[in-house]
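Final report, Chapter 2: Outcomes

The project's central promise was a pipeline that accepts a single protein chain and returns its three-dimensional structure in a standardized token representation, suitable for archiving and comparison. That pipeline is now operational. To close this chapter, we reproduce one record exactly as it appears in the project archive, with the input sequence first and the structure output second.
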Amino acid sequence: MGGRTDPGPAGTTLDWRRAACAPAVQFARNGADVVVQYRYAGEVHELRLPNIIWSGLVQEARVETFATLTADWTQWAVAGGLVRHVDGHVDLRYGYLGLREIRLPATIWDQILAAIRARAVDGLDR
């Protein structure tokens, strides 16, 4: 579950974590953000989630808030985050100071949740 060390943004070095249950995804900590990098359709994509958002996501994943997503928005986290599953994608909204919306392939979302539930990425929010 450990990872390799790769150069991160602006020349920083990131210690990537991988999980067997999430083969297309790797996770790292970079300052106040958790970085989620994934490969989909032959391209590499990267998400940067503020620690407070990542922590809320982890808590909600562990209590199964995301187990039965539909096309209707489901509220998550105290900060008013929203999530839904539409046409093979998961839309994630968060932010009370500035709204952010992320669209992920559902297969990638499932791998992120699997890594969280397997505790393969514990400690990234510290």
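Archive annotation: DSSP finds two helices and ten strands in the chain.
This record, like all others produced under the grant, will remain available to the consortium after the project formally closes.
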